[in-house]
Every structure is written in structure tokens, then in C-alpha cells.
Write a structure and sequence with these properties.
Elements lengths: L11 E4 L6 E4 L5 E5 L2 H7 L4 E7 L3 E4 L4 H6 L31 E5 L3 E6 L5 E6 L5 E5 L3 E4 L10 E3 L19 E2 L5 H14 L16
């Protein structure tokens, strides 16, 4: 009997502000973008949310300690403490943990499902219904990357047509990033096909479609 294949090594670890939601990925992001849509601005309280696209098959949600153990026993080895390495045993992905934890609250809009921590409120994830193979994580939740955080680079700004009037960001791609008034071209085509297949013609682009917030 041949031995089982080796478990892929996580290349990226992340968590929400209170560590109730934790995750690891065996792949690095395929793309990273700043989304300026109204929903991202409302949910972040800032000019945009930066999203990193990960293959769903590479993402593992790490079981978190129970709220009682976190609050009552802060010295428990299962509770992350300041200075803990994201690659410590407590942060290693548990086998057979593909589903989001109970601490991740999912909210659906016509085109996507967002996830935020039920305890601290941190925005953590977003997945478009038309891209079942991809999950985006908020880059602000990334704790460590194999080879250093410098391996992550923002490649585009999307929904700049919805950008806040007070945001004085650079215009015209001076920073080398692509600029899209709405969806990037490839994603926009998939969204439109998804809408047509389900008879859901949108009223116009707005991040997740008609979203200034689901």
C-alpha cells in the first residue's frame, strides 16, 4: 500500500482581529485588487477593501478555540498570543476543515457572499456566485506569507467610478496598477453570463452588482 501524498505546506496564514476566524492557504493569491465599491467602503469604514483571490481548494478554515476558553483561559496553548508565530502548532490547518467556522457570519447579496467575524466584526472574505472556484480574503487579515509579505502586490483598482470623493488616490495608473471603472473585463463577462443564465439582469455595475451594500 503506497503512503498517502504529503500534505501541502501552507504559504499564507490569516486571521480576524480577535483570531476567532483563522485560515491558511497552500497557494498564493492569483490577483490582488482594491475595490472602491460602496459596499466595500461601508463595510471597511475606509476608501476601499483590498481583496486577494485564492483558489477555494487551497483555502483551509482553521478551527478556533471556543469563546469560553479564549475569554477565561488566555494562557491556553490553543489561543493565539502576541508574538505567536502563524506557523505554530495552534495555527496549523486541521484536516477535514473545508467549511467556514461558525464564527464567520456569511451575508449574501445578488452576486456574492461576504464573510465577517461574528465576534469582532472584521471583514474577512468574499466569494462571487459566478466564481465558485475562488474565495477572496481581505488582505488586511493576512498575518504571514511564506517568503515575506513583500510577495503580495496590489495589481489593480476596481470600481474607481464609485470611489469616494474625498479619496485623493492617484489617477491614471501612475503607480503601475490597472484601473477599472467597474468589474475587470474577465470578471465582468462572467458576471454578465451568470446574470443571463439566471435571468438576473442588473441595473448597472456597483461592485457586486447593484450593491452599495447588501
Amino acid at each position: 500500500m503506497s503512503p498517502p501524498p504529503p500534505t501541502p505546506t501552507p504559504l499564507l496564514h490569516g486571521s480576524c482581529a480577535c483570531s476567532a476566524v483563522r485560515y491558511a492557504s497552500t497557494a498564493l493569491p492569483s490577483s490582488i485588487s482594491n475595490c472602491h465599491c460602496g459596499a466595500c467602503r461601508k463595510r471597511s469604514g475606509g476608501p476601499y477593501i483590498t481583496w486577494a483571490d485564492l483558489p477555494r481548494a487551497a483555502l483551509t478554515w482553521i478551527p478556533s478555540p471556543s469563546p469560553s476558553s479564549t475569554l477565561t483561559h488566555p494562557s491556553s496553548p490553543d489561543v493565539p498570543k502576541p508574538g505567536d508565530s502563524p506557523t505554530s502548532a495552534a495555527s496549523q490547518p486541521a484536516p477535514h476543515a473545508p467549511a467556514p467556522p461558525d464564527s464567520l457570519t456569511l451575508v449574501s447579496s445578488p452576486l456574492a457572499t461576504r464573510g465577517h467575524c461574528a465576534r469582532c466584526g472584521s471583514p474577512v472574505s468574499m466569494a462571487y456566485h459566478c466564481l465558485p472556484e475562488t474565495v477572496s480574503v481581505a488582505v488586511g487579515t493576512v498575518d504571514a506569507v511564506e517568503g515575506g509579505m513583500g510577495r503580495l502586490r496590489v495589481g489593480s483598482d476596481i470600481f474607481v467610478g464609485k470611489r469616494a470623493g474625498w479619496d485623493g488616490g492617484k489617477e491614471g495608473g501612475e503607480d503601475g496598477r490597472e484601473r477599472w471603472e467597474g468589474f475587470p473585463e474577465g470578471l465582468g463577462l462572467r458576471v454578465e453570463r451568470w446574470r443571463e443564465e439566471r435571468g438576473r439582469k442588473g441595473k448597472g455595475e456597483g461592485g457586486e452588482g447593484e450593491r452599495d451594500g447588501p
